[in-house]
């Protein structure tokens, strides 16, 4: 329980009749900060099975004696109260300097943070070291005080770092207190809402709150005299958003300097949205739409998996990739990035995404960080769950997902929860703002943040471990009365109780419960088969003479036909698909991977492997040496094999070995040696 909640708890215990307004005045908090603290406290109480605090119509609070015991137990043995921990104090001090472009005195800082001069001086020393990493300097003048100095680029990078790495301070309005300009905050909120209306966009909850702080800081900095300007660049200036922002601010009497105008635009363009329907596309947008379509087509080609509702998927991906491109180009932090523990499937997908994203990286002039790649890989992967059948029984309960971090993560969470809870019908994903306005009838809400609701709610993250999934599954099903696990646990305990002590039984109960949960239902990943699982020795073909691309497909698929793994109809479709200008069935410069949907004539899994010393001219002008027809039935089982093929296709040394091989036996040995030695992982 954090210190602000403790302060509120103490006040409730000493003044049980206190009203919200009095609490705000006594603790110098906003209504939002009080509401948030009560919400967090109620969530803890709910977790403990204790009746939560309720609001009275007169603005007071109602809580039972049982709650008092919990609050008192949390409040005892405390000596002194501090509002923020050391890191929070450091970040708020820097935020205060960011929001005050002139000089601030030591007295200003002590009054803002409510700490002693000695503590604040120590914090200033730490802050100097912290901002130095951003090429920013905290200067001191004996008569004026302290000032934060640097270019607008560096100042905004540190501002983004502070905001997006400390979202709890944002949600509690602590950063707003650093700005301490209610009129400006109101102007900025209206500005963002008007921007949403103009561009048919809806920012995620976290980004909306963060944008308020960041844009307010920019407008305050714009008035400062110690501005170190930078030139705006065409990447930003050619956007419709830049022109709209410039006009809006001028219309409302804000004469914005060009460097800060650039950064307001960047903050808008790099923010995650839940929904965006652009009426006009600028040059950047059109390029990203093209990149996304090429990425998805290549992804389908390389993974051999169809994406349901491809146009809708591409639209959502554009909504994610547009802000991601601005984050990457301008090296910004983002709350969309999480340290995900990804499974083998997703690691393989990440390798594929690394290749697919290269044209975008070349366009931006900078590589995508690993965290952004992971996020894209997880997003692509979770969309494949639609191809996996679940229980056909009609779910008894309805659930919604609330995610404050944007559409990509909300979709990821929805897919994970659908897989984890086939007994539930997951209706849709909402932002917290949308949740407060919805009239949907549902039984359960899964949320990344505590919500004010009477429905059963469960806090989730996009990075749940298998144990966390097991625990969540048990708890939800048990709360809904679906699981009979507790009776099984009791049966085991009845057997053990005559042999172990009561204290040991208590310790064992949870372990037994977790052991009995069916982990197959939560998607615990098994090892995937490698490339050699799909390629038989007699599937290798070695050709020395010139052949046509059509002959190459006939020859390379013949071993699969002979073993009744595919039909002639499947071969005919491979030829038809290959002879089209939009064919994406290639890996690297020298490998063709003709393939089609399993329903077009696949009876069982298999891969052919033809090596041609003479180049084969394929439609579209590609010269190919390796023709590898692929036939697979299951949606995700083949990822590892396809990833190994992709790495072979870009390994010139291995390709040269294939072309110099004396026999099909040698080709098979080279292939097996490469795969089994783990060279594909290098």
Automatic annotation (TrEMBL):
<keyword id="KW-0808">Transferase</keyword>
<dbReference type="InterPro" id="IPR036388">
    <property type="entry name" value="WH-like_DNA-bd_sf"/>
</dbReference>
<comment type="function">
    <text>The phosphoenolpyruvate-dependent sugar phosphotransferase system (sugar PTS), a major carbohydrate active transport system, catalyzes the phosphorylation of incoming sugar substrates concomitantly with their translocation across the cell membrane. The enzyme II UlaABC PTS system is involved in ascorbate transport.</text>
</comment>
<keyword id="KW-0762">Sugar transport</keyword>
<feature type="domain" description="PTS EIIB type-2">
    <location>
        <begin position="397"/>
        <end position="484"/>
    </location>
</feature>
<keyword id="KW-0597">Phosphoprotein</keyword>
<dbReference type="InterPro" id="IPR051351">
    <property type="entry name" value="Ascorbate-PTS_EIIA_comp"/>
</dbReference>
<dbReference type="GO" id="GO:0009401">
    <property type="term" value="P:phosphoenolpyruvate-dependent sugar phosphotransferase system"/>
</dbReference>
<keyword id="KW-0813">Transport</keyword>
<feature type="domain" description="PTS EIIA type-2">
    <location>
        <begin position="533"/>
        <end position="674"/>
    </location>
</feature>
<dbReference type="Pfam" id="PF00359">
    <property type="entry name" value="PTS_EIIA_2"/>
</dbReference>
<dbReference type="GO" id="GO:0005737">
    <property type="term" value="C:cytoplasm"/>
</dbReference>
<dbReference type="GO" id="GO:0006355">
    <property type="term" value="P:regulation of DNA-templated transcription"/>
</dbReference>
<keyword id="KW-0418">Kinase</keyword>
<keyword id="KW-0963">Cytoplasm</keyword>
<dbReference type="InterPro" id="IPR002178">
    <property type="entry name" value="PTS_EIIA_type-2_dom"/>
</dbReference>
<dbReference type="GO" id="GO:0008982">
    <property type="term" value="F:protein-N(PI)-phosphohistidine-sugar phosphotransferase activity"/>
</dbReference>
<dbReference type="GO" id="GO:0016301">
    <property type="term" value="F:kinase activity"/>
</dbReference>
<dbReference type="InterPro" id="IPR036634">
    <property type="entry name" value="PRD_sf"/>
</dbReference>
<feature type="domain" description="PRD">
    <location>
        <begin position="283"/>
        <end position="390"/>
    </location>
</feature>
<protein>
    <recommendedName>
        <fullName>Ascorbate-specific PTS system EIIA component</fullName>
    </recommendedName>
</protein>
<dbReference type="InterPro" id="IPR011608">
    <property type="entry name" value="PRD"/>
</dbReference>
<dbReference type="Pfam" id="PF00874">
    <property type="entry name" value="PRD"/>
</dbReference>
<dbReference type="InterPro" id="IPR016152">
    <property type="entry name" value="PTrfase/Anion_transptr"/>
</dbReference>
<dbReference type="InterPro" id="IPR013011">
    <property type="entry name" value="PTS_EIIB_2"/>
</dbReference>
<keyword id="KW-0598">Phosphotransferase system</keyword>
<dbReference type="InterPro" id="IPR036095">
    <property type="entry name" value="PTS_EIIB-like_sf"/>
</dbReference>
